[in-house]
Write a structure and sequence with these properties.
The chain contains 22 helices and two strands. By secondary structure, it is mainly alpha-helical. The chain has a domain at 394-483. The protein has a two-stranded antiparallel sheet with strand order 1-2. The longest helix has 27 residues, at 393-419. The chain is globular. 50% of the residues are buried.
């Protein structure tokens, strides 16, 4: 079946128009703080709305249903187009003054919840711009596609294709409710509820209302953008740090489990989920190792500081959030590289976290152990299981295929950065941070990406998009099979 371009154009136009509405909240923030950026957001609203209308209007009567391959193309186009349109306020604003490459980099970084920034002097930026950056991450975390999946059926366009193309993880057909629209709404309500509770907790712990809302957006989205150059460390509050740790951990869990816990009012679903158990064990083990290392090397002067700084950085980097309260780059020995490597695992499938997802690593571990057992018992029929359920061999094969492509893409993009003059530490950590949607790296990109050359920034933009859409969603578009009738 060929790709239905007119149906795709109609959906894309509608989604762009929908995105234009997100320019209205920064206008309100700008007017409340009288920071003068409302005009840039107002112009961006008109540009994006007009562009979406031009895309949608000629095909407004197109009623054909989206198929699976159409869903992949819509999602890929949507994220690329949104990254470009999202840069509009940053380009039109007089402060900060940003070049096109930097504006697109910042926009894509926000929407993909990577959290890498080219900006400095965040404490002095207009509140409208600061709020907009945080809002980009919140919408990118779970909001836009889930909202679109809930809305599109009302327009006569099915949402399951978009849901399957967007949902992270190797198993994509699990629905929380019989109808995909209700599934999308359920996830949206859970996402909104956790954000509200997180914001209230920050506020109660001493953050101002503006900072509390902004950091709740980036915490639950596992984004990492902050309104301050010092990130969460700006507040110098162990209570705020522990609140962030709790909600970063929560956001790294499959949101389906949160929904089921809320619906059934019990926590048994968490305990019964093999991926959640593996997620807890990985973060727990990594935390214990890092704390012991920091303690034995006397890096911090007190035990409490060792605990709070160590725990925060482990959870932040391990869940690919990217908040910091201290420079983990300066930690002794192998710890900085170990934390960067932990981002390759990331959070659970169905969460807002980046990385390859815990379930994939769990399946690869089980498959590897099965091969060891087969060496001892060549004739035994050994199945890979998650809990008590056998995993289809096709799923296991897809996980290994994903891992292989992930490594190849990582290698190619790292070579691009090396070819244009970046040192090995910077190239390795930058691509790891981009592909895993982490944010902070090592070397020249430990604090900021402003000094990176334009070619490297565009390579990183590609890495961020590939990581956010889990590689195959974009790579499938360049295969002849996708376009074949």
């Amino acid at each position: 079946m060929p790709v239905t371009f007119l149906a795709i154009q109609r959906v894309l136009g509608y989604l762009v128009m929908l995105f234009s509405i997100t320019m209205l909240t920064p206008i309100i923030v700008s007017l409340l703080f009288a920071d003068g950026t409302w005009a840039a957001f107002g112009a961006s609203f008109l540009i994006i709305l007009g562009s979406g209308t031009l895309i949608w209007y000629p095909v407004r009567n197109e009623q054909r249903e989206l198929r699976l391959r159409d869903g992949f193309l819509v999602v890929a186009l949507f994220w690329v187009v949104l990254g470009l349109f999202g840069s509009a306020p940053l380009l039109l604003s007089t402060y900060p003054s940003m070049a096109f490459t930097d504006a697109v980099f910042e926009s894509v970084s926000g929407l993909t919840t990577t959290g890498a920034t080219v900006l400095t002097g965040l404490d002095d930026l207009p509140e409208g711009i600061l709020f907009y950056r945080q809002q980009l991450q919140w919408l990118g975390g779970l909001g836009i596609i889930v909202l679109a999946v809930a809305v599109l059926p009302m327009l006569g366009v099915g949402g399951m294709q978009l849901y399957r193309a967007e949902t992270p993880g190797p198993v994509k057909d699990t629905k929380l409710t019989p109808r995909i629209t209700e599934t999308a709404k359920a996830l949206w309500y859970v996402y909104l509820g956790i954000t509200a509770v997180c914001g209230l907790a920050y506020w109660a712990a001493g953050m101002g209302l503006f900072d509390a809302l902004c950091h709740a957006f980036s915490t639950v989205a596992i984004g990492g953008f902050s309104t301050h150059d010092a990130s969460i460390g700006y507040f110098e509050s162990p209570v705020i740090e522990m609140i962030a740790v709790i909600f970063m951990f929560i956001a790294g869990v499959n949101f389906s489990l949160h929904f089921l816990a809320w619906k059934r009012l019990k926590l048994s679903n968490y305990i019964a989920d093999p991926e959640f158990i593996a997620y807890v064990k990985l973060l727990g083990g990594l935390t214990l190792f890092v704390l012991m290392y920091l303690y034995l090397t006397n890096y911090y002067s007190t035990l409490s500081e060792t605990f709070t700084k160590g725990l925060f950085q482990v959870v932040s980097i391990g869940t690919t959030t990217g908040f910091t309260t201290d420079s983990f780059v300066a930690w002794p020995g192998a710890l900085p590289v170990l934390l960067i490597l932990s981002s390759f695992v990331g959070g659970c499938a169905g969460s807002t976290a980046g990385g390859m997802k815990v379930i994939r690593w769990l399946l690869m571990y089980k498959q590897g152990w099965r091969e060891v057992q087969r060496l001892v018992h060549p004739s035994a029929a050994i199945t890979v299981k998650l809990g008590d359920k056998a995993v289809n061999n096709r799923v296991v094969d897809s996980v290994w295929g994903f891992f292989a492509v992930y490594v190849v893409v990582f290698g190619i993009l790292m070579l691009v950065l090396l070819a244009v003059g970046n040192d090995q530490v910077t190239a390795f950590s930058a691509i790891a941070a981009m592909l895993n949607n982490l944010g902070p790296g090592l070397g020249e990109v430990a604090e900021n990406y402003g000094s990176v050359d334009p070619v490297s920034k565009w390579a990183m933009v590609c890495a961020m998009l590939l990581g956010r859409l889990e590689i195959f969603t974009l790579l499938v578009l360049i295969t002849p099979t996708f376009w074949r009738r």
